[in-house]
Amino acid sequence: MKYLRFYEYGINWLHLKLNKRQFLIFSSMLVGLTAGLAAVLLKSTVHFIHHVITDDYSGRFHYLYLFFPTLGLLLTVFFVQRFLQGKLGRGTANILHSIIKKSAILPRDQMYSHLVSSALTVGFGGSAGLESPMVTTGSAIGSNYARTYHLSYKDRVLLLASGAAAGIAAAFDSPIAGVLFALEVILADVSISAFIPLIIAAAVGALCSKIILQEGILLSFHYLQPFNYHFTLFYALMGVLAGLVSVYYVRTFTRIEHLFKPEKTRVYTKALAGGLVLGVLILFFPSLFGEGYSSIKALSDMKADTLLNGSFFSNSGLFSSLKENEWFVLFFVGVLMMIKVLATSITISAGGNGGNFAPSLFVGAYLGYFFSRLISMLGIAKLPEGNFTIVAMAGVLSGIFHAPLTAIFLIVEITGGYELMIPLMIVSAVSYTVVKYFEPYSMDAKKLVKKGHVLTHSKDKSILSSLKIASIIETDFHRIDPGATLRELVEVVAHSSRNIFPVVDKEEALVGVILLDNIREVMFKTELYDSLLVKELMRKPAETVNSEESMQSVMKKFDETGAWNFPVIDHGKYVGFISKSSIFSKYRKVLIKSNIS
How far is Cα 231 from Cα 390, in angstroms, rounded to an integer? Predict the structure, then answer.
């Protein structure tokens, strides 16, 4: 505690001595360092667990593979239920939602909760990736650092993105990919001044990985062939296939999520069922155990037959002979590519914690090998299988995350050169185009869109999406009963500064509205004061708004009707009115706040 207080005193002293820009750059370095060390800790912990539980029977079949994933899921669910009250925001959708709806504030427990839960899930064989938990952890570190030192909303978002960039950079020793990931996936609006903190954080995160982690833990490739432009058409076709497989991945994952959703309250039953199914899949396909990066390296080194080692049938004589059959090995790779999507979906939907970054690379590598090997075996062309294995990873990653630049430069960095830049650009761009046709939003952004939280790279739309109807409702409108007389209505009008009057019954339900412009002709006809009733004068509103409705939906109604005010209804009861002027006023305040540096 003494050293912690000294650390906090030192940061506070620097906060006073440095100007805002200098302190932000210094802060990005600290956030990058902390997020990088957290990523290194997670990677090392998972590999340690793998070593402990599989060391005695590595490379051969063992029935414990059936129970390890179940144990990991049950431990993860126990941790989440016991220590996090059942709440664990998963994926970049959680981060994007915090930026849109929660002023870029992430809960403090997310600085460690994702490290523990994902280590338990993936460490015991859950078929998911660690990059998403790393990104969430880094983002939470950046967000809470900014909260501690009372930085502005704009700087808080930037440090949140810096933590995410550091997480990706440390996961792959790829600082450029970390920066691009933050720009493509996290940040909705970017200025040139934002690049420096992102670059510093990503560089520090990657440095942590390079210094501490052993080479075998990181994904890296060494076997590459020079790019041959004669194969350009095949690379373009590879991009189309990568896009279609990405669509299959996204839609399959969504279906599995919905399949497990009815069991939302029975968390242990769900984890047990999902773990047992996952364990059975791993018995037949050992490469599904954990992240699966070792099998990707085997494919890039053209050692596909080693993927069959450790399978349930690996010790049988028939299976041993089939390993020598190239067509069977190719069929095994193709089936494993499709099954991986199921395994990852089950792991996460059943209560585990992990991401889709590593699985997307896994599926891409298997697709690239399957395609290139099939073309070669059919005698159509002799394709460089290692190259196709690598570039297809970028294609599927680009398609699933809608992040082509991240995909391109990630592969460039982990392969150590720019030799494959042209095919990487072709495959990633074609895949992204194909996926965009079928799925306009990425898998994580799609979840937000369904809730009405549209995230775009337009600051205007992002700010508009962040506005909440409850904070803009105007309640100073004089209500009137539908059975009231014109005399009573005139009295209400005389004491009001508004030109619209909600007609509300005894159950507080809105039955209509009175517009001042529509009653001017009868207001001064005193002979009608006691005979004409409000219910005869009222009109149906052009539209009504629900208090939980998205701002995009509200603005669409304004555009379609040309109205300036809408009544707001909450559970069937009148609440107040929302107007264009109140929305514009609130928007302007948020915009000014977001630009304060």
Answer: 15
- Report whether 173 contacts 210 (CB < 8 A): yes
Domains (ranges, CATH) in the chain?
2-215 (1.10.3080.10), 229-455 (1.10.3080.10), 467-594 (3.10.580.10)
d(CA 535, CA 546): 23
pLDDT band at residue 45 under the 50/70/90 scheme: very high
Q: What is the pTM of this model?
A: 0.80
pLDDT classification of 168: cutoffs 50, 70, 90: very high
Residue 111 pLDDT more than 90?
Answer: yes
56 — pLDDT class (breaks 50, 70, 90)? low
Give the three-class secondary structure for 227.
coil
* Edge-to-edge order in the sheet of strand 565-570: 545-546, 565-570, 573-579
- CB neighbourhood size of 162 (10 A): 37
Let me know how long the chain is: 597
Residue 385 to residue 401: CA distance in whole angstroms:
25
Contact residues for 233 (Cβ-Cβ < 8 A; gap 6+): none
- Tell me how far CA of residue 49 lies from CA of 45, 55, 218, 246, 542, in angstroms: 6, 10, 16, 31, 62
In whole angstroms, give the CA distance from residue 276 to residue 278: 5
State the CB neighbour count (10 A cutoff) for residue 421. Answer: 15
CA distance 109 to 96: 17
Strand pairing category for 500-504 and 565-570? unpaired
Cβ contact 248:417 at 8 Å: no
What span, in angstroms and rounded, lies between the C-alpha atoms of 223 and 279?
A: 32
354-394 confidence digits (pLDDT tens):
999 999 999 999 999 999 999 999 999 999 988 999 999 99
Q: Which amino acid is at 420?
A: L
Which one-letter DSSP state was computed for residue 476? -
Question: What's the average model confidence in pLDDT over 548-556?
Answer: 81
Phi, psi of 312 (to 5 degrees): -55, -35
β-bridge pairing 565-570 and 545-546 = parallel
